[in-house]
Specification:
This protein is of the alpha+beta class. The protein has three domains: 75 residues, OB fold (Dihydrolipoamide Acetyltransferase, E2P); 51 residues, Dihydrolipoamide Transferase; 203 residues, Chloramphenicol Acetyltransferase (2-Layer Sandwich). The chain is 29% helix and 24% strand. Strands 9, 12, 15, 16, 17, 18 and 19 form a seven-stranded mixed β-sheet that branches. α6 crosses α7 and α6 packs across α8. The longest helix is centred in the middle third of the chain and has 18 residues. The protein is elongated. The termini are far apart. 29% of the residues are buried.
């Protein structure tokens, strides 16, 4: 008797998922509750466990888009193969082993279906075949070192060795040719559910909100001096480093209390005001930008914020964020400065009404008390929905954030 394994419900707003990769192969014996596949929704990646022990029969393929409730695979009744338990399997005679080796090699050479058997997922093997890449040269990041589809997509063909004479010196190459002759290859990749959702949401925000951006600049010297003075003590006491993001989060939550419209959202014909601040922090993950949420950030200390950010960022890198950890934020902070961005206009994270953009820190000349001095300066940007937030509120909010960052003692004294 076989049991159908179906796509589970993972959230009210999610109607379909993508089968990211199989963790087991067709015909494998699986234990009950053992993870057999990874499913990717438009918000997170999660694992699919086996609901009984038995033999796995794969139905859906990697890359397939499946509706909630669709059958992914079946598990048939069956015992674990000999040798997996306590009793050791009977070893083959040496002669039989020697005979089997050439045959296996010949079959692997002739059959494209076994191109990457045992090392790559079916989708990864197909991509590697198309690229002409030997899977043995790829280091897999999947379970037990298995090559995933993402590994295969990132893999680059090694330059072919040539027996011809050495190439002409670089000076002989025409400087106006940016690419070698004939290198006009293109490749196509199916958009992931996450990337498709990001694309739809960004376009929807542009079309459905009256988005405007206001800018200011912050002298980061006071915060840098404070960090330099206390970072060692802070890490020794709390077990985590003191970064810039906790200061910005604290400054934002303080300013949101004074300008509640920036923390509000529009729901049909009503404005919903929140008396708490759940701050979404934009994080770059392997499969795209995600925005995990720090709940009740307004009631947290600096070290609590730092710990929350570190935990969420780690989950994002490992694709372990849950749906609950990425929904329900009231305000977003994004830091393009870590990639070198000097200035940008961040796009609102709907249904929120505002987002703060941080940028890189540049030593620039500024005027202080009638004198020109060099200070570490950062541009900050607030994009907001003008339907709910007026110019006075947006500018005043950003000025308050600047004031708190340039005098961080105010964050501790709440003045």
């Amino acid at each position: 008797m076989s049991l159908e394994i179906k796509v589970p419900s993972v959230g009210e707003s999610i109607t379909e998922v993508t089968l990211a990769q199989w963790l087991k192969q067709d015909g494998d014996y699986v234990e009950m509750d053992e993870n057999i596949a990874e499913l990717e929704s438009d918000k997170a990646t999660f694992e699919l466990p086996a609901e009984k022990a038995g033999i796995l029969r794969i139905i859906a393929q990697e890359g397939d888009t499946l509706e909630i409730g669709a059958v992914v695979c079946t598990i048939e009744d069956g015992d674990a193969p000999a040798g997996s338990g306590d009793a050791p399997a009977k070893e083959e005679a040496p002669a039989a082993k020697e005979e089997a080796k050439p045959a296996a090699k010949e079959e692997a050479d002739e059959s494209p279906e076994t191109y990457a058997a045992g090392t790559a997922s079916p989708a990864a093997a197909k991509i590697l075949r198309e690229k002409g890449i030997d899977p043995s040269t790829i280091k897999g990041t999947g379970k037990d070192g298995r090559i995933t589809k993402e590994d295969a997509e990132k893999a680059q063909t090694a330059p072919a060795k040539s027996e011809a004479k050495p190439a002409a010196p670089a000076a002989a190459v025409t400087p106006t040719a940016p690419f070698s002759k004939g290198e006009r290859a293109e490749r196509r990749e199916k958009m992931s559910s996450l990337r498709k959702t990001i694309a739809k949401r960004l376009v929807a925000v542009k079309n459905e909100t009256a988005m405007l951006t206001t800018f200011n600049e912050v002298n980061m010297q006071p915060i840098m001096d404070l960090r330099a003075k206390y970072k060692d003590i802070f890490k020794e006491k709390h077990g985590i480093g003191l970064g810039f993001m906790s200061f910005f989060t604290k400054a934002v939550t303080t300013a949101l209390k004074e300008w509640p419209a920036v923390n509000a959202r529009i729901d049909e014909n009503e404005i919903v005001y929140s008396d708490f601040a759940d701050v979404s922090i934009a994080v770059s993950a392997p499969k795209g930008l995600v925005v995990p949420v720090i709940r009740n950030a307004d009631s947290m200390s600096l070290y609590e914020i730092e710990k929350a950010i570190a935990e969420l960022a780690g989950k994002a890198r490992d694709n372990k964020l849950t749906i609950e950890e990425m929904t329900g934020g009231t305000f977003t902070i994004t830091n393009g400065g870590v990639f070198g961005s000097m200035m940008s206009t961040p796009i609102i994270n709907a249904p929120q009404s505002a987002i703060l953009g941080m940028h890189n820190i540049i030593q620039r000349p500024v005027a202080e008390n009638g004198q020109v001095v060099i200070r570490p300066m950062m541009y900050i940007a607030l994009s907001y929905d003008h339907r709910i937030i007026d110019g006075r509120e947006s500018v005043s909010f950003l000025v308050r954030v600047k004031q708190l960052l340039e005098d961080p003692a105010r964050l501790l004294l709440e003045v």
